[in-house]
Amino acid sequence: MVREKLTTPLNPFILFGHDGILRSRHFYTTLISLSFPIMLQNLLASSLSFVDTLMIGQLGEIQIAAVGLANQMFFLVILLFFGISSGSSIFFSQFWGSRDLKSIHKTLGLALIIGLIGAGIITAASIAFPASIMRVFTPDPAVIAVGTEYLRIVGISYIFTAVTFIFSSALRSTGNPRLPLLVSAISMTTNAIFNYLLIFGKFGFPQMGVRGAAIATVGSRALEVFLILFLSYRMKKPTAAPLREFFAFDKAFTAKFVKTVTPVILNEMAWSMGMVMYKIVFARMGTSIIASVNVTEAIQSLFFVVFIGTGNGSAIMIGNKIGEKRQDLAHRYAGGALILGFLLGGSVGIIMALLSPVIPLAFRVSPEILTMTTRSLALLAILMPFKTFNMHSIVGVLRSGGDTRYSLILELTGVWFVGVPLALIGGLLLHLPIYWLYLLVGLEEIYKLLIGIHRIRSGKWLNDLTGIPPMPSEPQVNRGSCKKQERRFG
Contact at 8 Å (CB) between 98 and 466? Predict the structure, then answer.
């Protein structure tokens, strides 16, 4: 691991000056070209989640609550895959910066092995013990019965999701974000169509309710795996390699991979378990409240997709520059991504607050749930700029520089020492309304922002993991020379 000493401090002039990063056309065009397909892919996923919730909501509040709680297992497995792929993308993007394809293939092979093992364990638990899993979240027997029916089927999809998720991450990190977008569009459209046919029994299909939604999910995920593998090899993408290259890693490479990726996986699992703990608190507050929470989160995720795209796009840009031995430019990109993320978060938060009385009307739920959801969205909008800053600082900056242990500490302390205790106190002791509880728990985001800024300003997050020695130093450029750097570095 190589840590380069930064020659240029992160200061406002570098970001906002005459030739600063935030005035740089190259910065925006690169970020948009990487982020936009990721945004669209996540928008499709969030839209499908929204449509799923909308369709299942036609069946009743018990079905909304049951599927939302059962999908906490999918949430856990997705966070596991996100941890693996996010950790692996540090290597993918840096190795792509140095054009080391064999190391990219070795990284992909290791990520697939770990992902499939994790998916297999969670799938087995979902199929064998679905009722026991549901009882963790709720004591309501009607919700447990419906959720068990759904979880036993949908658990099969986790195996397929592992392969798609990791291949998609590798493709995006190597400059091919459009292929995962295309595959997701086909898969999610298929899912939405079969949801409609099987949930409601249209055009001669059996009416299966939540079981139909689960079957549609499994079928679409299987299609997704086939398409991403077939097209990757057919189009000769950087992820396409002989099978032996995926398993050509040695002990030293494996140790470096595990050392870097394990904190990311632990980070995501610790964060996801915190989110599950929130859901347990919400479910103990009542079935109507957990129904409102599921509707609120389905709506909020539609607004948040922009930042999943810019956060991951920033990580790829910064990682590529580190792999190219352009640490000063990587540092500038980090500052630009953080400021841009905060400003965009504020803008999107305003839009979400303005639309909060309108969007929940699409759901067939009681007036009480509509009121809770509207107020929850309005207060969550206040937290949006802080959430987006932390998304960019942890995923986009700290992880792209290989600073995964600090990311773990930041996320772990934020969720478990701030967020979860506040949720328990506010929800179960003070019995706050759900919308005020959201705002109380949001203090976690303020904590992470303050601690994250200090680490990023120090420059200690920036590590070169490629093992390739840096080129002889370039002559230093003065402050007003970002455009000159781009001409040399772009």
Answer: yes
Category of 427 on φ-ψ map: left (φ > 0), alpha (ψ -120 to 50) or beta: alpha
The three-class DSSP label of residue 457 is helix
Other CB atoms within 10 Å distance of the CB of residue 102 = 12
Domain count, the chain: 1
Residue 150 lies in a domain: yes
Integer angstrom CA distances of residue 216 from 61, 165, 197, 386, 448: 21, 18, 9, 36, 38
- Is there a domain that residue 7 lies in? no
Domain interval for residue 335: 12-469
3-class DSSP assignment, residue 2: strand
Q: Does 362 fall in a domain? A: yes
Q: Which residues contact 170 (CB under 8 A, 6 or more apart)?
A: 85, 88, 89, 92, 104, 107, 108, 111, 238, 239
The position carrying tokens 């929800």 is 427
Q: What is the pTM of this model?
A: 0.70
Q: What angle do CA 211, 157, 400 make, to 5 degrees?
A: 135
**Could you give the CA distance from residue 320 to residue 334 in angstroms, rounded to a whole number?**
12
* CA dist., res. 457 & res. 284, Å (int): 41
Given a contact cutoff of 8 angstroms between Cβ atoms, the answer to whether 402 and 261 are in contact is no
Residues composing the chain:
490
- Domain annotation covers residue 5: no
DSSP state string for 241-301: --HHHHT---HHHHHHHHHHHHHHHHHHHHHHHHHHHHHHHHHHT-HHHHHHHHHHHHHHH
Instruction: Tell me how far apart the alpha carbons of residues 279 and 288 are, in angstroms, rounded to a whole number.
Output: 13
DSSP symbols for 459-471 = TTT--B-S-PPPP
The per-residue pLDDT string of the chain (490 residues; one tens digit each, 9 = 90 and over) reads 444 444 444 454 344 443 455 566 777 788 888 888 877 877 776 666 667 767 887 787 788 888 878 887 887 788 788 888 888 888 898 888 888 888 899 999 999 999 999 999 999 999 999 999 899 888 888 889 988 999 999 999 999 999 998 999 899 888 888 899 899 889 888 988 998 999 999 998 999 988 998 999 899 999 999 999 999 999 999 999 888 888 888 888 888 888 888 888 888 778 878 887 888 888 888 878 888 888 888 788 878 877 888 888 888 888 888 888 888 888 888 888 888 889 999 999 999 999 999 888 877 778 888 899 999 999 999 999 999 999 899 988 998 888 888 988 998 999 999 999 999 999 889 989 999 999 999 999 999 999 998 898 888 888 877 765 554 444 443 434 334 434 333 4
How many CB atoms are located within 10 Å of the residue 430 CB?
12
